[in-house]
């Protein structure tokens, strides 16, 4: 075990962590807005990866160029989800909300399995390939590019939510729906916008991962679980908390895998969740 | 009439003669059913309905009565299955004793999970149970002592044996074993729903602050409900292992088990002891028939239906199908 290997693991963990952070940010935004945990988040990631894959496979568009199309399609999917499902369960009991999004996740995943079979698929010869060598550390270019794009998208999201007028309207709706409506903010549209942005984040992460990751129908499950952990760690509803939480998770995953046993990578991350919810239920940066 | 006595005569369980007659005749019918020489598919269908109603009932106790949503309840199914299978293959211990040991282990695990986790609210608890269940399946996948990913093959006895719960010639004994467990579970659930414990649990579910102001120890009651529910789930895992005689982590720790118990209960009616039975009687035939006619293609048609049904129920009938029968008791008393 040399220093180089540990440095290598830290870099890999950092790059993965930025992707987890963006996925978690989408989840956190939706939760902060309407107190609904999207249990179908992993399936939405799977859908966006498949969208990116099919755009490459059928139209020959590189995941890089198809990014805007994927984002638009996933945002539309988010709006549809809101208008056909979420709108009806906003006032329901929490159990019903959990069951509804859980049902959505089963539905999307099994439809995908029926249509596309559970095969592994990947994009061949993407535009960004190869690796960088810095000293003795190797960095995969697609990974580096993906994490940088995710970081950029993350700060874009943060700027949008905290600085623009629409973002402030989103925050107002999150704080008090009725008060926001009195001020002329259309809450229902804000919710739909929240879903569109949430799934847009997932679309960015999904398309960027398509450069080096295989897509299959169950691909989203682990990412969704990590997103739950990240959101709990960062504090439900806090967006900037997701960034730190995502990086922590990425580091724990890669260092734990290196130092202890790689087949239990998931367990280390789960352990963080359990520790956080027991000792600091509001998360590291939570509002509640 | 004061509210307590109205509540005590709540719903179907104002045990009048009509209901008692209906239940006892249904029981007689169920006991006589194998005498009609049913083919083994129908026996299998009934066995699956019994098994799933018990599993759903166990989930109903923790989620319906005490209001904590566990998304990883399949965990105890797997523990039960592994307990009997491991003890039988390694030490030749009869599965009957294995069932009891499996229940005990599940109870202990439930306490260990429950003490830290049941303090959590809503989403936190749901996600925690999901992660714990997946964690257990990962550990079992790598644990060489219990066969790691290839699982355990239960050695076959030469002849049918009640002691080893193995019947190779007929499904009828399995039918009776599952039927008896089914009846016992529903009896326990019924007693629970009518007991002080049941009322306290529902008080905790509806308003935990009000409950604790009435000297109800909220977290202890939740843990108790979790333990009861875990111990109800474990024997089903054990019996399922005896029924199919081969288990592996991918089957008995499948997250799908946790999904289906949730689906059955929500479909039937959560918090009502008849909900799981109604849900299972509708869902299991659908699942078995789609497996026959559409199975083998690799498409998960039954899962598509599950997901769709779950969403539709949540949107249109959040109280489950039982709400079609269930009149508002207070409203009815007022009309009289």
In short:
The complex is a heterodimer of chains A (288) and B (336). Chain A has 288 residues and is mostly helical.
Give me the Rg of chain B, rounded. 20 Å
CATH class identity of chain B? Mainly Alpha
Order of helices and strands of chain A: HHHHEEHHHHHHH
Shape of chain A: globular
Order of helices and strands of chain B: HHHHHHEHHHHEHHHHH
Question: What fraction, in percent, of the residue positions of chain A are helical?
Answer: over 70%
Question: Which secondary structure elements does this structure contain, and how are they paired or packed?
Answer:
The complex is a heterodimer of chains A (288) and B (336).
Chain A: H1 3-34, H2 41-59, H3 67-89, H4 94-116, E1 131-134, E2 137-140, H5 141-163, H6 165-175, H7 177-182, H8 187-209, H9 220-234, H10 239-259, H11 265-279
Antiparallel strand pairs in A: 1-2
Helix pairs in contact in A: 1-5, 1-8, 1-9, 1-10, 2-3, 2-4, 2-8, 2-9, 3-8, 5-6, 5-8, 9-10, 9-11, 10-11
Chain B: H1 3-8, H2 17-32, H3 40-65, H4 74-91, H5 95-117, H6 122-142, E1 152-153, H7 172-194, H8 196-206, H9 208-213, H10 218-244, E2 246-247, H11 249-252, H12 255-268, H13 275-294, H14 301-316, H15 329-335
Antiparallel strand pairs in B: 1-2
Helix pairs in contact in B: 3-7, 3-10, 3-12, 3-13, 4-5, 4-10, 5-10, 7-8, 7-10, 8-10, 12-13, 12-14, 13-14
